[in-house]
Amino acid sequence: MPEIKKIVLTGGPCAGKTTALVKITEYFSGFGYKVFNVPEVPTIYSTAGWNYLTPNRDLYYQGERAILETQLALEDQFVHLAEVCTKPVLIVCDRGTMDISAYIRPEEWEEITRMAGTSPSELHERYDAVLHLVSAADGAEQYYTTATNATRYEQANEEGLRIARELDKKVIKAWTGHPHLRVINNHDDFENKLNRVLNEIAKVVGLPQPVQDERIFRVRITGEIPECSESLITQTYLVAEPGSEVRLRRREWSGGKVVNVHRSKKRLSDTEVIETERKVDNNLYEQMLQQADPYRSTIKKRRQSFIWKGQFFEIDTFLEPVHDLVMMETKGIAAQEPVKFPPFIEVLEDVTGNSRYLNYNIALNR
User: Fold this and answer.
1) In 3D, which of 201, 212, 328 has the Cα closest to residue 277?
2) Residues 6 or more apart in contact with residue 212 via CB below 8 angstroms
3) Whole-angstrom Cα distance, residue 359 to residue 355?
4) What is the pLDDT of residue 154?
5) Which of 146, 240, 286, 313 is the most exposed place for a label (fewest CB within 10 A)?
6) Where are the alpha helices (DSSP H) in 84-125?
7) How would you classify the pairing of strands 209-210 and 326-330?
């Protein structure tokens, strides 16, 4: 059986998914992959006559249930096709099953997943990665349009932009907890956004990626962070061969959700690196802890994740082995692009590229 990877490409309205799908197909076909694109199921139903703005609540409910069941069946059929291919396969889903939960009441979502014989945790596990492209309505309003999608109801006015931003955040919330959820920022140059998509998928399939420094800042929080996702991270470094870094991370959210991820990072040269991640269950997590690097402490930190003006930020407040350090990181912002610093953050120092502030080295504090 060939290697099969299944990716969800999602995001709020006018995020660039259609263009990204074309780019993904061209790029990875060039590396010898068979690329299948699973079409966006809600659009199939909308163009067929179903309208999610219908005042008929029963019709709305049955439509969302039908979308979920069709999505599951369609994805499964593409997996069957992939299983008989003779080369590695990349299945790219234009939206995934969890997107539906952003458009339906929680109690209805619970009911239709149960009737479909599944659950949110099982739906997360169907995919190797989820790439969320931030809507142009958040930080790139000048590019927001409804002309590219005849079924889009979020109009290009202030109210439409507000609705689009809210949907964007609801979709991210729906996928929060997936071990390989990556939020792709808006950029001044749309090509940079597409390149970030390609790099993240390259990580999933194990292709070399260019070495990229994330933008990292030592900060102080001066106000309330709006609409952020909070989690507690416990991070342990394992014994690894020279030139490699192996990390075991447990991430916990309120409500009892826990995700464990094993990450291996190997530098091939000054310009290329291979990085792989895989989810591990609690039993394997406990076993792997026996391989902890004795020279490095376990890191504990509280993470707050949010979008501000189209850019995705993560703020880590360290609890152990240091307790007076707050770091803010934003991924996917090109070196020449300005960072849109939120007003509730005071930047103390730009520490991008400063090895002292790498988690791997912070763990040396004992």
Assistant:
1) 201
2) 199
3) 9
4) 47
5) 286
6) 106-115, 120-124
7) unpaired
Comparing CA positions, the residue from 65, 93, 89, 116 lying closest to residue 4 is 89
Whether residue 204 contacts residue 5, with contact meaning beta carbons closer than 8 Å, is answered with yes
Supply the pLDDT for residue 221: 96
Q: Which residues lie across from 7 on neighbouring strands?
A: 92, 129
Residues sharing a CB contact under 8 Å with residue 155, sequence separation 6 or more, in sequence order: 146
> What is the total residue count of the chain?
366
**353 phi, psi to nearest 5 deg:** 80, -5
Q: pLDDT tens digit string along 12-43? A: 766 678 889 988 999 899 889 999 999 999 99
Q: 299, 233 in Cβ contact below 8 A?
A: yes
The mean of the pLDDT values for the chain is: 87
Residue 139, token pair as written in the block: 């930080």
Rg (CA), the chain: 21
CB of 296 closer than 8 Å to CB of 237: yes
Q: How far apart (Å, rounded) are the C-alpha atoms in residues 177 and 322?
A: 26
Closest CA to 14 of 184, 178, 138: 138
